[in-house]
Description:
With 148 residues, the protein is α+β, with helices and mostly antiparallel strands. The protein has three helices and eight strands; from the N terminus they run βαββββαβββα.
Amino acid sequence: MNTPESPVILDHLTAEVVAEILRRSGYRASVVENGRAPQVHSAAQGLGFLVGFGNPLEGADGRYADCGFQCWIGIQGELPADLVPTWNHTMRFARLSRQGEHLVLSMDVVVAGGVTENYLVAQCELWDRVIRDFIMFLRKPVQTESPE
Length: 148
């Protein structure tokens, strides 16, 4: 266990490290190889999500400088036109996009320069909060400004 005097600094991520931190934070997590880069599959607040890895470190097989949490939700019916821009204008930490017939909520985590394990735990907790806020956001109608 790390002590406050000597925290371990992580300057890269692996799928196994992220999965273990998720597990220690109370989530189920499994590593899945998809042919290009590993992914970690998990769930929060009843919604499945994945953690993908983006920037491999040179000469370091399976080690990455960053990862991204993503939650894909299928769209049924019509969406209000300002749903995505309203989220992106009013919420912090995570962005929302529409990709075909899906809404994609995503949040990046960068470890370049080194971070502590506690930082990664905090990012998992932040993602859980983002998912909770996203569910609440989807349950209420988007308020549009009326023309004057």
